[in-house]
Amino acid sequence: MKAASKFLNAASAAALSAALVVPGALAVQIVATSTAEAAVVSRVEVSGNQRVDAETIRNYITIKPGKAFSSSDIDAAVKALFGTGLFSDVQINQVGSTLVVKVAEYKVVNQVLFQGNKKIKDPALQMAIQLKPRGTFSQATLDADVEQIKGAYKHIGRDDAGVTAEVMDLGDNRVNVVFKITEGDRTQIAAINFVGNSAYSSRRLSDVINTKRSSWVSFILRDDVYDEDKLRADQELLRRFYYNHGYADFQVVSAVGELDNATNKYTVTITVQEGTRYNFGDISVESTIPEVDSKSLESVVLTQKGDVYNAKDVEDSLIALTEKVAGSGYAFAQVTPRGDRNFENHTISVVYTIDQGTKAYVERIEIRGNDRTRDYVIRREFDVSEGDAFNQVLVQRAKKRLENLDYFTSVDISTVPGSQPDQVVLVVTVVEKSTGEFSIGAGYSTGGDTAGPSVEGSITERNFLGRGQFIKISAGGGKNSRDYSLSFTEPYFLGRRIAAGFDIYKSTREYNNNYDSDTTGATIRFGLPITNNITTQLAYNIAQEKYKVDDSCLTNGAYIAGSPCTISTAILNGIDQSPWIKSSVSLGLVYNTIDDMKNPHEGIYANTSVEVAGLGGDAKFVKITGRGSVYQTLSESLDLVGLISGGAGHVEGYGSDGLRIFDQFQSSDRMIRGFAYNGIGPVDPATGDHLGGTTYFNASAEAQFPLPVVPESFGLRGAVFADAATLYGSQVTSVAQESTNLELRASVGLGLMWASPFGPIRIDYAIPVKKQAHDDVQEFNFGISTRF
To answer: Is 531 exposed, middle or buried (0-12, 13-18, 19+ CB in 10 A)?
Structure first.
């Protein structure tokens, strides 16, 4: 009896273990009739199975006829059968010399159907749930799927969505599952309140975070959806913002959203503790590696004594030091910053300590969550590969690169132990977001050849086919213009961090209803990053340019001076020589430290380029241009931003033909506002046609500010500005010209900027305060524009 009791207790323990480790187990019953711990059966009988073959069930268990088995074998058999996920119940009974395995199979899902869903389509819901056609059905999975669907609706701002599930028995152990959905109304965000902030206004902090207050554009932007994960990400954005502006003690005390059921609107309250603003104190580098000279590394450090404390500069210094030391042969070197706060004079001294570090290698990199983006698109952002030395600083740099791609809503990189003590596994978890954009906009110009309304539309995909490629198709036009273009960029050409791409374009223009132009061209370009802030671009450009006199200006097929149209002889000579082929190469350099390209507050954006034409074709010139813009926050509390920009250019023709008239610079609102396109510079006094110039200088000062009363979620900002420019010089010799000398023009005006769902839109009203007699004025301009 003791032996039998012992066997029964072991069997019961096995049953309990199986019930605990197998989800959805309805019951497990093991009845043993043997009176010994070890038993032998002559056969294994299977019952209750409908779809699964009996022999398949026998193969899952280790108990075989004629072979002794014990309670541990029964335990293993139960776990193995439950582990298949095919059975809701398993019973094992020994009857005499027969082992009876009785199973109850899970039902099979025939179809999964959705009813009542409009805002989220069937394919998206299918991806969110676990139940699939031809898969097994369980009540626990069904309940979990109901919650998943509710979560999907909550993610798009429909917290009160109702979901019920109906199971339709089809017989033969098959079922249909129907999810009935009541989508409800969208929740909105009535207000975003900041508590505890004094250094920065609530409006400025609202610009930093991604969660926005509901407005009339929210139905397009969908940025007013309350989401706890999004709010956590916003807290991190606030920390980065304060840390990068000197507030090293900053904390987010709490961030909560409260739903008013009566209005179905959230009120978000973010409580912060700003702390004191710090400057950098003493900066030094120390090394515990004898062969590494710490003094020689001080020039690599970006943090400078006296500057406002900036966490980004510290991070960039860590990366620069790590790369420098690794390049000297110390792959495992670890750079650690140590900050020493001085609470009296509000400074933080930083010591960068370089240690040998622990030897560890990257065993493998696992990518998770990328349903669309290819693995290699993520892997190539890492400067470490499988088998390389593990370095946490380089891993964090890869995280920043992945975030900057703007393919993902979140990027998380963690480490787990590898197969050996000196091996680590990098686990990269990403959450993808939409990377396609459709934009459309309109503009209006009041003067010059481009006067009248215009419209522009484009389709952009930043992660084409999940390969990380950029493609854009755009078309636009106005009363006197048509533009079409196709652009494609491969950011990693031949597997290296070299951007290669091409542009194909076609544009037509009508100039004062006197003559027309038709340009078809293409550009092949290569871009190479030199540092984190400096990039260079080499391009080859080819274009065919056709010019012709408008039919209304011809008499018997020929232009006659004194006809209703008046065209400068210099322009006619250029038209007579068309069509032209322009073949050129250009080299550009860009320096960019702008903090936010969509809403800049600080930083420098500068570019310069040299274009040389004459590699075949008809045009022969050397053209040099440059432009720089400096943004600086003038008042944190008022969110007042200052902008100073300037530019210059010179073109020089060479060869027997000299410079063509259409290769000279022409003015635009990018050069000076308040004047029409090609409205200043050298002019033919006989006709009043502006002929362009060989040299220009321009400068602008601007103050940008939020509009009072208007909610920050609208994305509207105002500006006051003053522009000055000159366009002079000419290599056209066929006519006498005026205004060829350096003559200054100036204007002042007001601007309105809108970060619209269709792209940045700007309206400017400028009044010329200094002009010349032949200048064409255009006071009002409206269009899609940026000022970089």
So the answer is: exposed
Task: Write phi, then psi, for 74 (nearest 5 degrees).
Answer: -65, -45
CB 160 within 8 A of CB 150: no
Measuring CA to CA, how many Å separate 614 from each of 292, 584, 585, 597, 654? 51, 6, 9, 36, 9
Q: Could you write out the three-class secondary structure of 686-697?
A: CCCCECCECEEE
C-beta atoms surrounding 147 within 10 Å = 11
The confidence score (pLDDT) of residue 217 equals 64
Token reading at 329: 């042969």
Q: Are 60 and 76 in contact (CB under 8 A)?
A: no
Cα separation, 214 vs 712, in Å, equals 10
Residue 702 Cα distances to 37, 415, 640, 753, 779, angstroms? 91, 48, 10, 13, 17
Residue with token string 């920050």:
712
Instruction: Give the DSSP letter string of 42-53.
Output: SEEEEES-SSS-
Q: Token digits for 480?
A: 């006197």
Buried b (16+ CB within 10 A) or exposed e, 470-494: bbbebebebebbebebebebbbbee
Q: Of 238, 277, 274, which Cα lies nearest the Cα of 255?
A: 238
Q: Kindly state the DSSP code that residue 84 receives in the 8-state scheme.
A: T
Burial class (CB in 10 A: 0-12, 13-18, 19+), 325: buried
> Quick one: pLDDT at residue 719?
95
Beta bridge partners of 643: 631, 702
CA 244/CA 224 separation, integer angstroms = 26
Cβ–Cβ under 8 Å, residues 458 and 474: yes
User: Are 694 and 705 within 8 A, CB to CB?
Assistant: no
Peptide bond between residue 290 and the one before it cis (omega within 30 degrees of 0): no
Contact in structure between 524 and 539 (CB atoms under 8 Å): yes
Domains delineated in the chain = 2-105 (3.10.20.310), 108-182 (3.10.20.310), 188-273 (3.10.20.310), 279-355 (3.10.20.310), 361-432 (3.10.20.310), 436-784 (2.40.160.50)
Cβ proximity of 651 and 744 under 8 Å? no
Mean pLDDT by 10 residues, the chain (788 residues): 36 36 38 53 85 84 86 86 83 86 86 91 89 88 92 84 91 90 86 92 88 73 77 92 94 92 90 95 90 86 92 89 82 87 93 88 92 92 89 86 88 89 91 81 59 78 93 88 94 90 94 86 94 91 92 76 77 85 96 87 94 91 96 88 96 86 91 91 89 96 89 82 96 86 95 78 91 89 66
Q: What is the rounded distance in angstroms from the CA atom of residue 112 to the CA atom of residue 268?
A: 37
d(CA 688, CA 449): 13
Alpha-carbon distance of 777 to 771, in angstroms, equals: 9
Q: Per the structure block, which two tokens stand in for 518?
A: 């038709």
